[in-house]
Amino acid sequence: MDNKDDKDTNDKPIEQPKQPRNLQGLLKFALEATRSEDPTTATDMQMSAESREFLEKALKSMTVDTAKEMLDAAKVTLDPDASEDDQVDALEVICGHVINIDQANVFHQIGGYDILKPCLNSKYEGVRAGAAALVADIARNNTTGQTTLAQINMLQEIAPLLTHPEPICTNAMSAISSLVTNYEAGMLELFNSGLIDRIVSVLETRKENKLITKVTFFLAGIPGCHPEFVDKFLDLGIMKYLSGLIVPVTQEDLQDSQVLNKVQNILHATTTFCSYNRSLDDLRVIAPDLPERLKEIAKVAATDEAFDDIKDYAEQILKVLK
Predict the structure, then answer these.
(1) Could you tell me if 321 and 284 are in contact, meaning their C-beta atoms sit under 8 angstroms apart?
(2) What CA–CA distance (Å, rounded) separates 116 from 108?
(3) What is the pLDDT of residue 50?
(4) DSSP states of 134-200 as a string?
(5) What is the rounded CA–CA span in Å between residue 50 and residue 296?
(6) How many Cβ atoms from other residues are within 10 Å of residue 102's Cβ?
(7) What gap in Å lies between CA 214 and CA 136, rounded to an integer?
(8) Are 97 and 70 in contact (CB under 8 A)?
(9) d(C-alpha 172, C-alpha 71), whole Å
(10) Where do Basic and acidic residues bias regions lie (predicted)?
(11) Full set of structural domains in the chain with CATH
């Protein structure tokens, strides 16, 4: 007996409806898809003119004019009669759009940057925090955003907010990170302007867990993203500040997610810099007791697999310090 496919070779495959490109196409797509699923009722699925008009209006009502929505929200942030909550909500609306890089660039094109400096200097803490978050969202992984924000000296505007309370300072650090990461001109400005000293000062003087986490997260990326700047960070004594933050912790301490994230990022940043011999030499001189501290941390971290990253980082540093 001859082998035959299950399907008759004369049968033609069912053609799939073309993907829709507009509202009319979407209507046709819905009809065609339904017809192919249940051909016996195809005639019942024909839309009347009234039904088609109703569905088309419904679909149009669901579309959003993003530029208009961002402009309307921007106006609220500059309205002296708007409450703090209203202005914060407006900034959140804009943030919801600019996380898309194309929309972030549209925000610049429609003049949205005009609200940034007033909002960063607002009398309302919530507005200052929201504006810093907006800058971070615009610049993140967006070279065009980084460039256009650099043209209005955004680093100079953001850096002073590092001295403000949470969440302003944390959002400001996120913004700085977004403004300079993978953007050499931004990194150069950070050093040439002396603003890098403000970041180093955070490691030396501030205690907020989230803020330290943001700073060390930024530092952890430097050797990979900007190896040409590693020596500049070492010149600032970055290993002294990082090693000073490496202190023994208890299992109870690490149950706090903020402490857990902070310790993990401190060790991660230290690990990445330890790929450079100069960093290791610095640690051996300025922190001779660091191995003992790391052993204590690794011992505590070994008690729970949730702390595995901390244990791994501590052991990596111990290994290269030998």
Answers:
(1) yes
(2) 11
(3) 77
(4) HHHHHHTT-HHHHHHHHTTTHHHHHGGGGGSPTTHHHHHHHHHHHHHTT-HHHHHHHHHTSTHHHHH
(5) 74
(6) 12
(7) 12
(8) yes
(9) 23
(10) 1-15
(11) 63-193 (1.25.10.10), 196-321 (1.25.10.10)
Which single residue is written with the structure tokens 């933050």?
Answer: 245
How confident is the prediction for the chain on average, in pLDDT? 88
Model confidence at 42, pLDDT cuts 50, 70, 90, reads very low
pLDDT classification of 157: cutoffs 50, 70, 90: very high
Question: Which of 274, 252, 248 lies closest to 263 in space, CA to CA?
Answer: 248
Predicted confidence (pLDDT) per residue in 165-218, tens digit: 999 999 999 999 999 999 999 999 999 999 999 999 999 999 999 999 999 999
pLDDT of 40 higher than 60: no
Q: Can you tell me the distance from the alpha carbon of 322 to that of 99, in angstroms, rounded to the nearest whole number?
A: 44
Q: Is residue 171 within 8 Å of 133, Cβ to Cβ? A: yes
Q: What is the phi/psi pair of residue 157, to 5°?
A: -80, -35
* Measured distance CA(291)–CA(269) in Å, rounded: 16
Two tokens at 40? 């016996």
Token duo for residue 249: 């912790």
